[in-house]
Fold this sequence. Notes:
Blueprint: H1 7-24, E1 30-33, E2 36-39, E3 42-43, E4 49-50, E5 53-54, E6 61-63, H2 90-106, E7 111-115, H3 143-159, E8 164-169, H4 179-196, E9 202-207, H5 223-231, E10 234-235, E11 238-239, E12 241-243, H6 254-259, E13 263-266, H7 273-284, E14 294-298, H8 310-316, E15 322-323, H9 349-362
Amino acid sequence: MRPKITLLFLLLLTFIVPIVNSQTTRNTLVEIKEDQFLINGEPTYEGRFWKGNKIEGLLMNSRMVQGVFDDLNPETTVNWEYPDTKKWDAERNTNEFVAHMPAWKSHGLLSFTINLQGGSPFGYSQGQPWINTAFNEDGTLRGDYFNRLEKILDQADELGMVPILGLFYFGQDERLKDEKAVIHAVENAVDWILEKGYRNVLIEVNNECNVRYDHEILQPERVHELIELVKNREKDGYRLLVSTSYGGGTVPKENVVKAADFILLHGNGVKDPKNITGQVEATREVSGYSNQPIVYNEDDHFNFDQELNNFTAAVSSYASWGFFDYRMKDEGYEQGYQSVPVDWGINSDRKKGFFNLLKEITGY
Length: 364
């Protein structure tokens, strides 16, 4: 006779199985050992050199911050209409992002920057009347944004990729009503990641902390407080690795260098590649620097067909580099990864130039 399966047992299965799965089926773990990134215990690009430059341990990336983009202002959504449907669709945007991730990885892209408040969908902007934020004004989470984020982080975990997740963006941080809400938002976002069991996510507290933030705690003098807040939240003995970034060409301040697990630099405005080398050298001289990895996660300079460009200059300094591309005046839909609506494919000359050089450097 078959034993009876009680209703209580079935109910227990219903509640227990999803919890176990969320904690045991993750595939990708990112770690830092000295100045190298490791994925699942092995250095990235293991054993790789390119033109005499060590590539092992670097984290090549691209600025893909609009992966969960939406606009909660009905007066500005007309700006983001797809050319084929003549309407904006946040779910389509995320689904197409996820669909193209394997192609990025196949060229050696191990990381990408995504941001819960996006970035300027025009590349650069003064005013930002659109409302793009994954946080309510009190710092609680918007479920629709985090549902889209989950799709991206799940795919990254499957592919062995390491997203750099930015929490705040200037021009949108004022959507949170006060400092308490900012702190609450950080706690909620970090706890969500930890509860989901992700161990492949790096945190960038805010993009360019020295550029036009409303809340003092997001500005250079105090942003290290939020870095420490992230470091102090953990689950099952695990915490997230965290940093923040500055505007183009800026050398980070001592308070951030001492607190951060890795150092984020931007190359915007750095026209001479030799100054990229200088920026890296100056960063290593900041008091409190302790051999953390140095990562450019935003640089809008290209010239990928030339032997010396900002990408190759960063590599020669043993710094990771990140591609920042946006749709410039009169360019077509296929251009740029930051301009909304985004074509997430590798099908413009700039995109092809970056990914071809990336593939060559990383040996993928």
